[in-house]
Amino acid sequence: MLNTPIRQWKGKRVWLIGASSGIGLALAQALIARGARVAVSARNGEALYRLAASTKPANVLPLPLDATSRDELQAAFAQMLDAWGGIDVALLLQGTHAPMRAWTLDADVARGLVETNLVSVLESLAVIVPRLLEQQQGAVAICSSVAGYRGLPTALVYGATKAALINLAESLYIDLAPRGIGVWVVNPGFVKTPLTDRNEFRMPALISAEEAAGHILDGFASGCFEIHFPKRFTRWLKLFRFLPFGLYVRLIRRATGL
Ligand SMILES: NC(=O)c1ccc[n+]([C@@H]2O[C@H](COP(=O)([O-])OP(=O)(O)OC[C@H]3O[C@@H](n4cnc5c(N)ncnc54)[C@H](OP(=O)(O)O)[C@@H]3O)[C@@H](O)[C@H]2O)c1
Known about the structure:
By secondary structure, the chain is an alpha/beta fold. 47% of the residues lie in helices and 14% in strands. The chain has one domain: Rossmann fold (3-Layer(aba) Sandwich), CATH 3.40.50.720. The protein has helices at residues 22-33, 45-53, 70-84, 107-135, 158-176, 209-222, 231-240, 245-256; strands at 13-17, 37-41, 60-62, 89-92, 139-143, 182-188, 191-192, 207-208, 226-229. The strands form 2 sheets. The protein has a 7-stranded parallel β-sheet with strand order 3-2-1-4-5-6-9, sandwiched between helices. Strand 2 (37-41), helix 2 (45-53) and strand 3 form a beta-alpha-beta unit. Residues 17-24, 42-44, 66-68, 93-96, 116, 120, 143, 145, 188, 190-191, 193-196 line the site of NADP nicotinamide-adenine-dinucleotide phosphate. Residues 17-24, 42-44, 66-68, 93-96, 116, 120, 143, 145, 188, 190-191, 193-196 line the site of NADP nicotinamide-adenine-dinucleotide phosphate (NAP).
């Protein structure tokens, strides 16, 4: 077992970035239902206050921010520490997607994907990790994707940001696990959210955001480093990682028709 399992969430102080919709919103709701105290962040403050209004106010702390802004991250984290005196788990789920192929490559859109999916996670870690080291306890989870395993059509830049996050989580684990800090990487398959609603192709093994939240909590309870789901889909993609590139390309072309 690579991490200490987290099975009991009651009273845990959680910071969830990306909590305004999709998987993050469903996960925030599941954590609140289990008695965690959850500081919720995203740019859409209205959605965060709506979430807070729907539950016990003392257990939810809305901290609207743009996670690409260092100042906003620092100010929000200071507010959370003021309120709860520390952090137990940081969940970095912020992300965006813009389907792109080689012939639609747009440097500005690509830069935006890198800023939101990769740079904002680095900025978040730079704020959180020193505190986790000081406390000598806690955990951080980074949401990547199975799109980070290998190159895929339409995921020209999205996939590259997610591959970087998997590598980043592995390096973080190597450094932080010996210091008693948990590091997790979450690799979902297809989940129905505003992010995938822009996909025009049929998404195999599509699950709901609520199911995804359940899988993430099961993953924390198992103590594994990588939380991937649904297994009926992700196990195949894991197998595909070991194929020679030529064979992989033939299979992916056949499977996607792209
Ligand atoms: N859905 C899938 O099939 C799937 C599969 C694999 C991985 N993932 C990953 O799962 C995570 C959640 O995605 P989702 O599918 O639930 O999509 P979503 O509903 O679009 O959620 C994305 C979240 O990230 C937040 N966010 C985006 N940019 C931000 C910024 N600059 N600062 C702060 N928050 C920001 C959004 O809030 P605001 O817009 O309010 O800021 C929202 O809360 C993402 O990292 C995504 O890449 C999703």
